Amino acid sequence: MHQAILYSFRRCPYAMRARMAIVSSGMQVILREVQLRDKPQSLRDISPKATVPVLLSADNEVIEESLDIMLWALRQSDPDAWLKDINYLLIRNNDGPFKQWLDKYKYADRYPEQTQQFYRQQGEQTLLMLEHALADSDFLSGDTITITDIAIFPFIRQFVSVETNWFKQAPYPKTRRWLDYLLASELFQTTMHKYQPWDMTNEFPALFPATTIS
User: Fold this and answer.
1) Where's the GST C-terminal domain (predicted)?
2) Residues 197, 24, 132, CA angle at the centre, nearest 5°?
């Protein structure tokens, strides 16, 4: 039986959350680490937009959206019940307005219409939403990790990395604790394993995850 193939880029937050769901599911896929400046033709052949992540299933189904890849993996195997109590409102906000403000905050020099501080303040509206969601529980949908946390976590990681000293002092202690927990988790460490960029000359497929979490 053929294995699913995942085209990924290690630092992309969309690819990151797809990989985290695959790790949680207990599945193993063939990973093709993409160089964004030199995307392989095999990726373009199955997905003309050629943005990672893209998954080619064992049944030759092409899945081009990261959230759909997460759902694909977890619907096959969800040992930690990530699919319970999904907060679609938080995920839609993350993937829509927050991602737009994140890009402007991170690359403020490309958006001189406003200051970097202005873009950060717009993004902080999402931090307030997270702080509220974490008021009575350890995670965004309750006392255990769900797909809600993992769909959002890589983008918050990116947001706070713009001004780490500011975030250390910012009035979001529950979001800080939540982020620190996920950053230190074995799940995240497994997800961020480094792979060599893939090309057609690679003799042996790279398997992801390389090892399973015990």
Assistant:
1) 72-213
2) 110
CA proximity to 101, closest of 147, 156, 49? 156
Close Cβ partners of 63 (under 8 Å, ≥ 6 residues apart): 54, 55, 56, 57, 69, 72
Backbone φ and ψ of 8, nearest 5°: -145, 165
In the chain, the domains with their CATH numbers are: 5-79+192-208 (3.40.30.10), 88-188 (1.20.1050.10)
26 exposure class (CB count in 10 Å sphere: 0-12, 13-18, 19+): middle
- The strand pairing partners of 30, in sequence order, are 5, 207
Q: How confident is the model at residue 214 (pLDDT cuts 50, 70, 90)?
A: very low
- As a whole number, mean pLDDT of residues 180-188 equals 98
Nearest to 207 by CA among 182, 186, 190: 190
Task: Provide the total of helices (H) and of strands (E) in the chain, helices listed first.
Answer: 10, 5
What one-letter code names the amino acid at 125? Q
Question: In angstroms, how far is the first alpha carbon of the chain from the final one?
Answer: 25
